[in-house]
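Page 47, continued from p. 46.
Same chain as before, 362 aa.
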Amino acid sequence: MPADSDAQQDQHHPPSTTQDPALTEEDLVAIRATLSALRDDTTQASLYYDAATMAPLNPLAAAAVARLRAYKPPPFPLWDTLPVRKRAAVLILLYADRWGDLRVVITMRAANLRSFSGHAALPGGKADTAEETPYQIARREASEEIGLPQNDYGLPKPFRVEPLCTLPPALARTHLVVTPVVAFLHADRKLPGDASPLVEEAMIPRLDAREVAAVFSAPFYNFLKRDDLPVKGEGETLPEGAWYDGSWIQWKDVPWRVHNFHVPVNNQRVSTPRRASSSGQGNLAGKLEEEQANEGRFKVWGMTARVLLDAARVAFAETPEMEHNEDYGDRMIIDIAAKDGVFEEVAHADRPKDYDSERGKI
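Result:
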């Protein structure tokens, strides 16, 4: 969700409404159990795209996954009363890199989409039916956008996706209520002596050129920091430019922090559609490759950036280094929108013919 360019900026920190989640005794028990299991079971591992990235979770990442697994968002009864066309979900798909650090999968939206074309986004979209859960919405859309199967039966062994939690809802500028769903991609190692999985053949995303121009990843912990995390790979460097900048705007008279994260992509392979489409998608894919070569950073901002920062706050139980909204999600703004009647299901004879034709898209 992009910020309005002419929005009024407010350089003052908004009043605190919610504290960072404190760890309960149940959280600590879950974290200790996860760390103990990791020490006892050296076969647990996760990977994505590159066979060299198979590694067990390190203690920081293991504790983060345990916190997410134990997290329970506040009740949100409004979801069940929303029209289907106003419900949406996004998938925060986490996996472990070769050092056991968590990374998150991010897409670049296709050039031909009506809403937020060419912007970084999480896999996701609108609900199809009132019966779909946020997790089902997110998995279905991830299947369409990046080729992640809708259930684990379609995943090659040893991969499996574990749903961890949902987060408080966000509000897109199109007045879609978006539920973030956090999941972890496991790749449990086979027994010693077994062949490693053919990751390049099995897990490279099959991008839909009509919806996604590229897919890349970012270090999950970095969304709490003002600067880039140090590189760990031998010979790897950081590209020019800053990791973070941001500003305050007013949204429905509520202070809202716009976060701009500039993700380094010079040390990773950015996947693009294999075939160019007649919609100009090939041109955008080429532009992304050129940006990767010349600048080495992709911008992640707006609703996507806010959702990732909130997810990292829950996962690592740390206060972000940058100014930020103290509450999680956009519940206050959603309540204002509901009072304004923007979620009411009414007939609109003046809607364009293609109003709902862009199926599923945020």
